[in-house]
Structures are given as C-alpha cells and as structure tokens.
Amino acid sequence: MIFDTHAHYDDEDFDGDRQALLEGLSGAGVRAVTNIGASLSSSRATLELAARYPWMYAAIGVHPSDTGELSEDGIGWLREAAAGEKVVAIGEIGLDYYWEEPEHEVQKKWFSRQLALAGELKLPVVIHSRDAARDTLDMMKAECARENGGVIHCFSYAKEMAREYLNMGFYLGIGGVVTFKNAKKLKEVVEYAPLSQIVLETDCPYLAPVPNRGKRNSSMNLPYVAEEIARIKGVSREEVEAVTWENALKLYRIVL
Questions:
Q1: Cα–Cα nearest to 174, from 206, 204, 200, 210
Q2: What is the mean pLDDT of residues 140-166?
Q3: Where are the alpha helices (DSSP H) in 82-144?
Q4: How far is 206 from 190, CA to CA, in rounded Å?
C-alpha cells in the first residue's frame, strides 16, 4: 500500500479529470493521500476534497510565496478549520528565498505565526524550505517545532542538514526528484537517512519522476520513487512501500 503524503489535487491541472483520476488511485495501490493547502483558498478546496474521499486527509496552511495575503483573520480561520477531523497537519508552511517576493521578513513573520499555531493545536507541520536552510532550521528550533514533529517536504539540502532534522525526529519527504540523474545530493541523503524517517510524496502535479519527468505528476507515479529508494538502500520496493506507509500513519497520527 502506498501513502502519498503531499499532493495538490485541488490544482487546476486536474480540473479536466480529477474525479476519474482519484477514483482510480486504489487500483494502482495508492490507498491514502494527504492533500496540502498552499493558500487560504487552496486550503478550503483541500477540506472539500478530504470531505469527499474517505481515504484523503487534509493539511491546511499558507505557503511562503502566498504569505503576502495572510493576516490575523486568516490565522483565525486556520485555527477554526484545523478542528476538523480530517485535518492532520499545518502546512505547507516555511520559507522560500528563491523568489524576492514576498519579502523575507514577511515570510518569516507568518512562518513563525503558523509554527506557533501548530504548537497551540498540537499538530505536525509540513515544511517548505527553498534556499533558506539556516533560517528555516533556526526558526523551527526557536518555535520548538520538534515537540509536534512533521515532515520536511521535497527535501533538497545536503546530508548535514538532513542530520539536523532527523535528530529532531522529523520525516523527510522524498518524491520524483530522487529519480533524476543529477540528484546526487538527494540520493546521498536517502542513503544516509533511516527508512523509518522517510515518507513518499509527489507534490503533484509537479515533479514527476523518470520516466515521466516533465509530464503532469500524480500519485500513480510513486512506485517509480519507491523503486529508486529501494535501489539506493538495497531493499525491496515492497519493503519501502510498507515502511513508508507506516511512517505516514505515524507522521499524521492516523489510526486505521
């Protein structure tokens, strides 16, 4: 069984065939998905999807690139919505310094606020961090993020940074990038990290793995990711899928 811990099925790329695709996932071995909010509007859409599909769960939060829209009213809505039984995390939240906007201080303000909200609600966090390794780690330590745990989504840093998060008890989200030929750094991280702290993710519709790189991604591509992790770690694909399934249940505190 496969658990896609990070998907964006509310994205407009799925408007043409969303229902058919989602209804076909179980036939491909995908038995659970957490859809991830990236803005207030996508968090609302995520809640609607989770309500419609029994095997879908929701994370709600505001991605750093969308923090320019956030206010205390938005935090209040997130607090109320997070009480829903299908909400399993606050995310995706974090820092993204690849882009100049919103300003870094704006991103940091709302990252801190959402980390504090997760702490208040005792929910794990789904962390987005791009070109902001040190600030992300420092802020998470300052907010005692390890107490509620979570996942570093689409992990993209070196082994030394992976060690920091693994020691904090966080999971590393591994997706299609690990199949790319030029992903040497990520392959080294996967080799180093214990399988017990790795979860599978797509970030769909983005980052489809080889052999579908460049196409629209979906949870049906996760066997390619599991196969590459298995190759790197010298275990079977079935073991990777079984262990990462259990890891995802622990990450999101889901009891089936």
A1: 200
A2: 94
A3: 104-121, 133-142
A4: 20
pLDDT of residue 99: 87
Residue 191 in this model has a pLDDT that exceeds 80 = yes
CA-closest candidate to residue 158, choices 188, 195, 199, 193:
188
Q: What is the C-alpha separation between 118 and 238, in angstroms, rounded?
A: 33
In 3D space, the residue among 221, 227, 211, 220 whose CA is nearest the CA of residue 24 turns out to be 220
In angstroms, the CA 125 to CA 87 distance is 11
CA distance 177 to 187: 9
Is the peptide bond prior to 223 cis by the omega test (within 30 degrees of 0)? no
Full-model pTM: 0.97
Q: What angle do CA 88, 2, 137 make, to 5 degrees?
A: 50
Q: For the segment 112-152, what is each residue's pLDDT rounded down to a tens digit?
A: 999 999 999 999 999 999 999 999 999 999 988 788 999 99
83: which residues sit within 8 A by CB, 6+ positions away? none
- List Cα–Cα distances, 81 to 77, 140, 146, 154, in angstroms: 6, 23, 23, 25
